[in-house]
Task: structure prediction
Amino acid sequence: MPNAVLARDNRLALRSFLEALLAEDLGTFSSTGLPAIWVEPPFLAERQTISGVACIIARHEKRLSQQHVVSAPQAIQRFDWEVVIRAYDRSAEGIIPYDRAIAKMRQAFSQFREIMLDTSEDVLPQVRYLLASSRIVNLIHQYQ
Result:
């Protein structure tokens, strides 16, 4: 299995890592039968039916911070990956894969923030992880 730190480099790496990590626990999309893992955008369709546990990934960028480097002007782009694990099956059997998915996320991303969201009759059980990441951006094009 790939490294959890390297998985945060880009959305495809993160999606692949989470799909492998949560393979036994993910539910499926009813329309395709594919594992219920989704990267936004595009946003998950309200009419999409999911059985079991779903994993939803979104990226939130922060402002560029300029770095003084001798060779080339650069900046650090910081962003958070928001990963939501949601249980669409509230039965006793449905909560078991949800709990396993949470345990696996805690082990793989122990240094990151976990937020258990409130649940009710109208709100599905879900937990949110904020995975911080960054990359170096060359600003050469701005000076030509």
Remarks:
- The chain has one domain: 4-143.
